[in-house]
Structures are given as C-alpha cells and as structure tokens.
Amino acid sequence: MTVKDRVAIVSGGSRGIGQAIAELFAEKGAKVIIWDVLDAGTDVAKSITDKGQSAEFMKVSITEKEAVEQAVKNVVEKYGTIDILINNAGITRDKTLLKMSDEEWDSVINVNLSGIFYCTRAVAPIMKEKGYGRIISASSTTGLRGNYGQTNYAATKAGVIGMTKTWALELGRYGITVNAIAPGYTQTPMTDAIPDNLKEMAKHSIPVGFLAEPKDLAVGYLFLASDEARFVTGICLPIDGGATR
Fold first, then answer.
1. pTM to 2 decimals?
2. Residues 6 or more apart from 219 whose CB is under 8 A from it?
3. Catalytic residue among 79, 118, 148, 153
4. Is residue 244 part of a domain?
C-alpha cells in the first residue's frame, strides 16, 4: 500500500489511534505532520524522526478556523503540497440527555464536527489544484448505532458519515477520495476511563473476542490513503471485530 513521499496531516496524532496512524504512515515513507493541542505530539514526532523517518509536530487547535488555515499555509510553504488529510482528532463528554449541559454538547460538536469541517475545507483546494487527494475522517460505531450517554458523540460521528458521503460526491471529479472509518472498542487513552466491567461486556459482544489495538485501525487508514484505494470513496468502514452487523 503506497504512501511513500506523500505529505500527510494527522490531526490528534499525539496518542492512541492518531499516534498509530502517524507512526505507520511514516514507516511507509510518508512525510507526516501531526496536528494536536497536546504537547505530547512533540515526543511522537521525535520518536519517528529518531528512526530516520519524516515527522513534524504543529500545535494546532482544529476548532479555530484561522489557526487551521494558517497551519495549512505553513505546511504547503514547507512541503509544497498536501496529499493526505487524516481527520482523527476527537473528544468525548459523556452524559445522558437529561443531564447533558450546553457546554458538554458544544465542546464535542466543535471538535468532532466543526473541526473536521474546518480542516477539510482548508485542505481541499490544495488537493483540487493538484488533482489528487485522500481524506479520511474518524467516525465511530456509535455513529452507526448510537450509544447510551453519548448523544453529543453519536451526533458528531453520524454527521461525519454524512459529510464524508457529500464530499465524496463533490470532490471525486478532482481526483480526491473521501472516506471514513468507524472504530469499535479500541484500547486508547480515551477508552481507559471506561470501567473494566463494561470493557468485559464489550469484549463479549465482539465476534473476534478481543478489543482492538490502535495499530488495528491504522492499517485501515493506510489502505484508504494509499494509491491502491483510488476507486474507494464515500464509504464508512467499520473496524470493530464484527460487532456492527
């Protein structure tokens, strides 16, 4: 699966699935730029460059459209183009409907939905001019079937699927494919807060019988970002061990 010498932005690349994506893409020869608000992205980039691979960390809040637009300009000035955009950054603020505050609703919408919109809108013209691009966004199985206590998260992840299908229609003529991935339960810092008994319940609901590791998701992103996936667009790929059926 070819991403060699491709310039790839990975939002939320400082930990979890985003970190695994950044590391795998760099291993396969991509020039990786990690966007995150967490300074841990510096350590991830350094661990990649220490292996002789290409990575850079930029502190970017994807909820600030001006910051996103400036970051895109900075990437293009340094690397000449942008080939791949991985919209991975996301947060949770879980509460049931009757307990969810406006702040908990707004914060998740701002990161998980508006942030992806800002990033994609800023990058798409670069890809259009080049006649090539790969855009892959993080949805979730929660966006496919809902989840107790996650009204805000489910709304954003379902929205990502809708945006993905719309952008695939709009951008396909310019050589740009747009897809989403819906991870199931994955062992990341985001899921560390889930009680062990609930993790065990989740494990029993997964046909393959185990929770995913971040690298299990990264290989899906690698395929959709590769040259070989040129005819794949407008899909949401569940990577969940068969839990969504």
1. 0.95
2. 24
3. 153
4. no
